[in-house]
C-alpha cells in the first residue's frame, strides 16, 4: 500500500509541472486527482496478483496436495484464494481512497451509484486478476519462468493502462494497447463512480470486466482441475 501512496503524494504533485490537467469522460481533473483514483484500481490488481504466488508456493512446498486431501474441491481452493486476496485488496483500496480523498475532493461527485460501482470494480477486478495469476501459476513449472512471467504481466498491467495517464493524446498504437488491458476498464469504472461520470462507454467497460472475470475464473478452475500434484 506504500507504493500507491508515494505515487499519489509525490509523483502526483511532482508531475503537475508538466501535466496541467487531464480529461475524463468530459470532466476536467487535475493530475493528482486522476492519479489517486487510478491507484485504487492499481492496488486491487497488485493485491490479487499475489494469488498466483500463493498457489505457486502451495504447489512447490506440497501444501496443495495436503489441502486437496480435505473435503474441498479445487474450485473452493482457487475461490478462497481469490476472495482472501480480494478482501486484502478492498481494505487497502478503501484506505487509499480515504487518504486520496485529500487529493481529489474538489472533483468528487458522490451519488447513489458511487459505492455500487466501486464495489463492482473491486469484486470483478479481484476475480479477474486473481484468476489470471492462478492460470500463470498452473501453467509455469520453473520458478525462474514463473517470476519472469508474473513480473512481466504486472508491468504490462500497471503501466500500459490508464491508471497513471490518460489514453487521450497517446500514440494510437499505445492507446489501443491501453484498451487491451483490463486494468484500464477497472480504473475507468472507479473514476466514473467517484467523479459522477457514468457514460454509455463506462457501462460497456463494466460489461467487458464482468465477462472477462467470469471467463478467466472458469478457465482457472478448469486448468486447476486438470493439474497434477
TrEMBL record:
Record domain ABC transmembrane type-2: where: 1-227
GO terms for cellular component: ATP-binding cassette (ABC) transporter complex
Keyword list, A-Z: Membrane, Transmembrane, Transmembrane helix
TM helices/strands, residue ranges: 31-56, 77-104, 110-136, 148-167, 173-190, 202-224
Localization annotation: Membrane
Membrane topology listed for this record: Multi-pass membrane protein
Entry-linked InterPro entries: ABC2_TM (IPR013525), ABC2_TM_bact-type (IPR047817), ABC_2_transport (IPR000412), Nod_factor_ABC_transporter (IPR051784)
Highest taxon listed in the record's lineage: Archaea
Organism expressing this protein natively: Cenarchaeum symbiosum (strain A)
Protein name as catalogued: ABC-type multidrug transport system, permease component
Molecular-function GO term, any one: ABC-type transporter activity
Amino acid at each position: 500500500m506504500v507504493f500507491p501512496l508515494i505515487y499519489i503524494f509525490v509523483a502526483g504533485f511532482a508531475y503537475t509541472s508538466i501535466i496541467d490537467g487531464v480529461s475524463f469522460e468530459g470532466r476536467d481533473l487535475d493530475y493528482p486527482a486522476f492519479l489517486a483514483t487510478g491507484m485504487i484500481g492499481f492496488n486491487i490488481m497488485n493485491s490479487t496478483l499475489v494469488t498466483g504466488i500463493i498457489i505457486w508456493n502451495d504447489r512447490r512446498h506440497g501444501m496443495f496436495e495436503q489441502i486437496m486431501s480435505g473435503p474441498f474441491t479445487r474450485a473452493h481452493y482457487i475461490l478462497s484464494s481469490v476472495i482472501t486476496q480480494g478482501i486484502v485488496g478492498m481494505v487497502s483500496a478503501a484506505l487509499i481512497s480515504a487518504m486520496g480523498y485529500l487529493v481529489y475532493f474538489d472533483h468528487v461527485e458522490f451519488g447513489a451509484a458511487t459505492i455500487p460501482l466501486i464495489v463492482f470494480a473491486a469484486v470483478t477486478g479481484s476475480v479477474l486478476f486473481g484468476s489470471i495469476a492462478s492460470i500463470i501459476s498452473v501453467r509455469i513449472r520453473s520458478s525462474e519462468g514463473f517470476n519472469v512471467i508474473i513480473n512481466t504481466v504486472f508491468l504490462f498491467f500497471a503501466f500500459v493502462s490508464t491508471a497513471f495517464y490518460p489514453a487521450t493524446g497517446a500514440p494510437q498504437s499505445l492507446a489501443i494497447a491501453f484498451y487491451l488491458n483490463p486494468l484500464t476498464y477497472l480504473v475507468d469504472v472507479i473514476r466514473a463512480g467517484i467523479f459522477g461520470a457514468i457514460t454509455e462507454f463506462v457501462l460497456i467497460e463494466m460489461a467487458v470486466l464482468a465477462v472477462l472475470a467470469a471467463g478467466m475464473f472458469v478457465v482457472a478452475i478448469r486448468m486447476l482441475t486438470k493439474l497434477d500434484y
